[in-house]
Amino acid sequence: MSLQGPIVVVGDQLYPELVAALGEAGAFPVVETPWGNASVAIAQIEPAAVVLNEPNGHPKSEMLALARAIEDANGPHMPVIARIKPGEAPAVATALPIAMDAPVSRVVARLVSASRVRTLHAAALRRADAFAAEIQDMPTLPTTDPLEDATVMVLGRGGSYPDLAVAVGERVGLIGALSIETAARYLNERDVDGVMLGDGFGPRMVEAFLTVIAEDARFRDLPIAVLAGVPITIDRAQLPNLEQMKGEPNDVVERMLPLVRIHAFATRLQRLLAAIEAKGMLDPQSGLFTIAAFLRDLQRALEEARECGGTLSLARFSFAKDLDRRANLDAARLVSRLVRKADFACHASDASILVAFSGTTLRSAHVVARRIASVLKHTMVRTDDGQGRIAPSVTLACLKSNDTIESLLGRVSEPVAVAAE
């Protein structure tokens, strides 16, 4: 992917090497502006992206004006890269940090990665407009901070692992992995918005893990923090959001959060696009059917089963009442990956998950439900207090000759534990 223009480069000095690299990557025009004029330039030019050079040390009024101009920008997401010195934090909270002395090729690579999110956002806005007349309840993006939906995986088996896991768990959803093999499995099974690779692994294991990620296009934009050394054999051009970090766990997590935030935002956009393409039948937060779409499909499945003499089974997965919203949504997203193509599910208003098994007897539905419950139990941990794993209670019911939707749903209202495999 090439860069699109215009791009505004903010700094009180000239940066010819950076400007030339941006131009070679396709950006046009590339406009340089001093800090004192930055907010005005952004408001007038409406750039596709902004690069901030040494944003700290300038008057607070300039920082506030700049942040306001970025926030007020119209159109799709506008990436902001902040080139900062060690120990500094971006002056704009949403800016993606990168070391001031990082090669300009790394700056361009990170900007290209962030620009893919802008393209994704533009596609979502365009399709929402195109289908506005066809979709009665148009799915919309949540207005909350994407970090509320973010999940970060922490790998490690050394002394830093507990503190790193605690630091991550206090800010975002946490997935813990004590081995490279487990981490690789979670990457394929879960929505992961960042990886923190702690100590306890040899150079060859780190190299193998990073190589697998770099070779898979699904993970090319994944933020990765390596607390040990990055093997020199790793092609950093394929991992634009790879960072080697040192310091206290809380500091490391804080430096990674802007990268995690934009990845979580991209994940939101992907779910929104899927919901729009499904003509509003999918919930953009869980990836499952909306409640209304689920009830409509359940009614059709019930009528079809009666006409053809088929079978229909229903399962409700219920969770502890004190389970936090993030973990509950994460469970729903995991179920969206587990349900079979012929089945359909929704995230109910009481935070339970309903799954309808078309053409499935009660015995067969019991087997499938046990497998889903087993994956939830062995994959997820509570993110609010870390006390144990999430073990859903499951109730099953099979369609009877005199059933209505209300009576079928009523028979799965009281959860009864189904043993997970």
Verbal overview:
With 421 residues, the protein is of the alpha/beta class. It folds into 3 domains: 124 residues, Response regulator (Rossmann fold, 3-Layer(aba) Sandwich), CATH 3.40.50; 129 residues, 3-Layer(aba) Sandwich (Rossmann fold), CATH 3.40.50; 125 residues, Reverse transcriptase/Diguanylate cyclase domain (Alpha-Beta Plaits). The chain is built from 12 helices and 14 strands. Strand 3, helix 3 and strand 4 form a beta-alpha-beta unit. Helix 1 packs across helix 4, helix 2 runs parallel beside helix 3 and helix 4 packs parallel to helix 8.
What is this entry, summarized?
By secondary structure, this protein is an alpha/beta fold.
Blueprint (SSEs and pairs):
Blueprint lengths: L6 E4 L5 H9 L5 E4 L4 H8 L3 E5 L6 H12 L8 E5 L11 E4 L4 H27 L20 E5 L5 H9 L3 E5 L2 H10 L4 E4 L5 H13 L8 E3 L15 E3 L4 H29 L13 H18 L3 E7 L6 H14 L5 E4 L5 E6 L3 H18 L13 E6 L6 H6 L11
Parallel strand pairs: 1-2, 1-3, 3-4, 4-5, 6-7, 6-8, 8-9, 9-10
Antiparallel strand pairs: 11-13, 11-14, 12-13
Helix pairs in contact: 1-4, 2-3, 4-8
Helix content, binned percent:
40-55%
Q: What is the 3D form?
A: globular
Q: Which class best fits the helix and strand makeup?
A: alpha/beta
Based on CA atoms alone, the radius of gyration comes out at: 24 Å
Placed side by side, the strands forming the largest sheet appear as: 2-1-3-4-5
Level-2 CATH architecture of the largest domain: 3-Layer(aba) Sandwich
The tally of domains stands at 3
Question: What's the multimeric state?
Answer: single chain
Q: Main sheet, how many strands, which sense, barrel?
A: 5 strands, parallel
Span from first to last CA?
45 Å
User: Helix and strand string, N-terminal first?
Assistant: EHEHEHEEHEHEHEHEEHHEHEEHEH
CATH class call of the largest domain = Alpha Beta
User: What is the count of DSSP helices, taking H or I runs of 4+ residues?
Assistant: 12
Low-confidence stretches: 415-421
Q: What percent of residues are in strands?
A: 15-25%
CATH fold type of the largest domain? Rossmann fold
Average pLDDT metric: 89
Number of strands: 14
Give the CATH H-level superfamily of the largest domain. Response regulator
